[in-house]
Automatic annotation (TrEMBL):
<keyword id="KW-0808">Transferase</keyword>
<dbReference type="InterPro" id="IPR008928">
    <property type="entry name" value="6-hairpin_glycosidase_sf"/>
</dbReference>
<keyword id="KW-0328">Glycosyltransferase</keyword>
<dbReference type="InterPro" id="IPR012341">
    <property type="entry name" value="6hp_glycosidase-like_sf"/>
</dbReference>
<dbReference type="InterPro" id="IPR033432">
    <property type="entry name" value="GH94_catalytic"/>
</dbReference>
<dbReference type="Pfam" id="PF17167">
    <property type="entry name" value="Glyco_hydro_94"/>
</dbReference>
<feature type="domain" description="Glycosyl hydrolase 94 catalytic">
    <location>
        <begin position="66"/>
        <end position="315"/>
    </location>
</feature>
<protein>
    <recommendedName>
        <fullName>Glycosyl hydrolase 94 catalytic domain-containing protein</fullName>
    </recommendedName>
</protein>
Length: 434
């Protein structure tokens, strides 16, 4: 008995010491975060950029739902909420009768590219709509953007605003119905899309590249379905009667279950890149499951698909991937990249664009999840290269080459939005733990 008491006493002492060490470590990390001037500089630059409006970036004179979704919170803090509301409502001017939503829209004078698949609207005659049909995240991105707008402004009336005779909430239900009828696999109980690099909008076969064509191989991936899970959670929050809440809850539970069941590889502790509805675009001797999808995994974390232990293992994998690739930050999209000889014409080579480029737009979302799940030191240390390059290159670039060279739009608002969210989350944690 005395020995048992002694062991118990030692256990209590070790627990107290462990707690003290953790508390001391948190205080030191808090001090470092709160004294890091680069974080304040990045936040200031992000707010200045977002205050300019809603175009996705200096190279894009368009409003995209998938981009707007990632800088909505900051827009609500820096911009006139009435104008934000108008921009959100305009997406529904271009909604199809089947519920389909577009990527976005552009003023007629800003339509300068060759695109045979444009859309016009009687209720928005001064704009042109557009859509990359290989994606399956337009509907879910807009739903999430509206939820974030409501959370920041408390303007729930937007759900009951009418666009061409239908309320926004009715139109969002139509959007979900489109996905469940036109982009749904009964066999797996999951959403389908064209085969792209993780979250990207370029199909691996080439062809029409951003549009579905005769080369398209339909498949299931974690990004599209994690986005759908998040959208269903928002639809639950929009519903006003018990029956509808029960409906959205059931769908939410089913998609969470099916996504984890069919796409999570328990042995490798990673998500399978694709499940193919019919056949694969790749030869049988190509092991696609050797590829890690960092962006889709980030959204899966946000959707609550992974446990904290699984996330801890994923973080270690991602660190290794970044080191092996030589990528400048945790924003690395996929690793290893898809071999050039297996891809169609006009498709990104290894470490180019979405095939292994470094994107703050998704790396920042990873950092947010690291913080939410308690891996704050990882978020800060792995995020610092992203913060530093904003100052070094004087801009929020769309993506970075493997050697750290900035590429794409220099004022990419998606990058600014996610980094500002990370800075806010780091500072909030530091204030609580100082």
């Amino acid at each position: 008995m005395d020995m048992m008491r002694f062991v118990s006493f030692i256990g209590i002492i070790l627990c107290i010491l462990s707690c003290q060490l953790r508390e001391n470590g948190n205080k030191e990390l808090s001090r470092v975060i709160l004294s890091d001037t680069i974080l304040y500089q990045v936040d200031e630059k992000a707010r200045e950029l977002i205050s300019r409006g809603f175009y996705a970036g200096s190279g894009y004179q368009m409003v995209w739902s998938r981009d707007l979704n990632t800088f909505m919170e900051l827009s609500c803090e820096q911009y006139n909420p009435n104008i934000i509301r108008e921009n959100l409502l305009m997406f529904f001017d271009f909604q199809g009768e089947n519920g389909e939503l577009l990527d976005g829209y552009v003023p007629i004078e800003g339509f300068t590219w060759d695109d045979p698949n444009t859309y016009k609207s009687i209720t928005a005659p001064n704009h042109i709509g557009f859509k990359n049909t290989v994606e399956t995240d337009q509907e879910t991105s807009l739903i999430q953007a509206i939820a974030k707008y409501i959370a920041k402004t408390n303007d729930k009336s937007i759900l009951w605003a009418k666009v061409d005779g239908r309320t926004v909430y009715e139109r969002l239900k139509l959007a979900i119905n489109f996905l469940m009828t036109e982009r749904y696999s009964e066999k797996y109980g999951l959403i389908i899309g064209a085969t792209t690099f993780d979250w990207g909008d370029v199909q691996v076969e080439g062809g029409a590249v951003v549009d579905v064509d005769e080369l398209t191989h339909w498949s299931i991936d974690v990004y599209d379905n994690a986005m759908f899970v998040l959208a269903l959670k928002d639809m639950y929050s929009f519903a006003t009667n018990p029956e509808e809440k029960e409906h959205w809850q059931a769908m939410y539970d089913n998609f969470k279950l099916n996504t984890k069941k069919h796409l999570w590889d328990c042995e490798k502790n990673k998500f399978i890149p694709h499940i193919y509805i019919e056949d694969s675009p790749f030869p049988s001797d190509f092991d696609e499951n050797a590829i890690h999808y960092h962006g889709g995994t980030a959204v899966a974390m946000e959707a609550g698909l992974l446990t904290k232990l699984e996330i801890e293992k994923v973080i270690e994998q991602m660190k290794v991937n970044v080191k092996l690739s030589g990528a400048p930050s945790i924003g690395l999209t996929v690793y290893p990249p898809y071999p050039e000889n297996l891809l169609g014409k006009n498709v990104s080579k290894p470490y180019d664009y979405q095939n292994g480029g470094d994107w703050t737009w998704f790396g920042g979302r990873l950092l947010q999840q690291f913080i939410d799940y308690g891996f704050v030191e990882d978020a800060y240390t792995l995020g610092r290269p992203m913060f530093e390059r904003v100052i070094l290159n004087n801009g929020f670039y769309e993506w970075y080459a493997i050697d750290g060279t900035p590429r794409g739009s220099a004022d990419f608002k998606g990058s600014a939005g996610v980094l500002a969210n990370v800075v806010k989350a780091l500072h909030e944690w530091a204030e609580k733990n100082k």
